[in-house]
C-alpha cells in the first residue's frame, strides 16, 4: 500500500492548462487532416507525423545522434508544409488584409478551407460524358477531360478559359472540335459543370511510361500523380478511350467500363 501511495505521489500532476493544451493540439491536428484529406498531401502529412513520433521516442531513449538527425528532418518537414500549402496560406493572409466585415471574412475563411467531403454533393450525371466520348471516339477527335474530386483546381483553371456552364454532350464535343479555339489543352469539369477549357496540365516525368504515348496521355498521368482527379482521354490517332487515376493509365476501355469506373470514383 505504501509503495502504491508513493507511486501515485510520484506521478506528474495534470493541470487544467495541460488538458487545454492537449485539446488545442488535437484540434489543430484534426484541422490539418481535414484540409489535406483526399489529396496527395496526406502522404506528406502522415510521413511527418510518423517522423515526429519516432523523433520523440529516440529523444526519450537518449539516442542523441538519431535525435539530432530527426530534429533536422523535422525542421525541413515544417518548411515542406509551408511550401505545399503556399497557395492556401497566401489566400488566407490576403483575406485577413482585405477591408471586409468580420462576418464576411469568416464566411470567406470557411469557404477557403471547406472540403468537398464536408458539404453535400450533386450527383454526377455521366450520360453527357459517356455520349461525348463515344462520339469523339467514332470521329477520332482528341479529348482530355479532368474530373475534379477533392483538390482545388484554381491554379490549373487560371491557365485556361473559364466556362462555368452546365455540361452537355454537344458542349464537350464543341470544345474539342479541331477548329475550335478552345480545343487544345484539357477541359476541367466538376459534377455537372464544365469549369474551364484549354487548360495546361503538368506532364509526367516518369521514365517508365510508354514512349509512344502522346501529350494528352502523359498529361493525364502527370495531373493524376499530383492531384486527386480522374482523367479521361480520347486518342486523336486511334479513337481509343483511356482513363487515368493515381498516376496509372488504362488504355482502350469500352464505354461500359468507363461508366463503371467513373461511377466508382465520382460517387
Tell me the helix content.
40-55%
Radius of gyration: 24 Å
Strand % is 5-15%
Remind me, CATH topology of the largest domain? YojJ-like (1
C-alpha end-to-end distance: 60 Å
Low-pLDDT residue spans: 115-119
Instruction: Give the spatial strand order of the biggest sheet.
Output: 2-4-3-1-5-6-7
**Biggest β-sheet, characterized?**
7 strands, mixed
CATH architecture of the largest domain: 3-Layer(aba) Sandwich
Q: What is the element string, with H for helices and E for strands?
A: HHHHHHHEHEHEEHEEEH
Category from helices, strands and their pairing:
alpha+beta
Approximate shape: elongated
Total helical segments:
11
| Average pLDDT rating | 80
Number of domains: 2
Number of separate strands: 7
CATH superfamily of the largest domain: DNA integrity scanning protein, DisA, N-terminal domain
CATH class of the largest domain: Alpha Beta
Explain this structure to me?
This protein is α+β, with helices and mostly antiparallel strands. The protein folds into 2 domains: 2-84, no CATH class; 127-265, YojJ-like (1, CATH 3.40.1700.10. The chain has 11 helices and 7 strands. The chain has helices spanning 2-10, 16-36, 41-60, 64-84, 86-97, 102-113, 127-138, 154-157, 169-176, 215-226, 255-265; strands at residues 143-148, 161-166, 186-190, 193-199, 229-234, 241-245, 248-250. It has a 7-stranded mixed beta sheet with strand order 2-4-3-1-5-6-7, sandwiched between helices. Helix 3 (41-60) packs antiparallel against helix 4, helix 5 runs antiparallel to helix 6 (102-113) and helix 7 crosses helix 9. The longest helix is centred in the first third of the chain and has 21 residues, at 16-36.
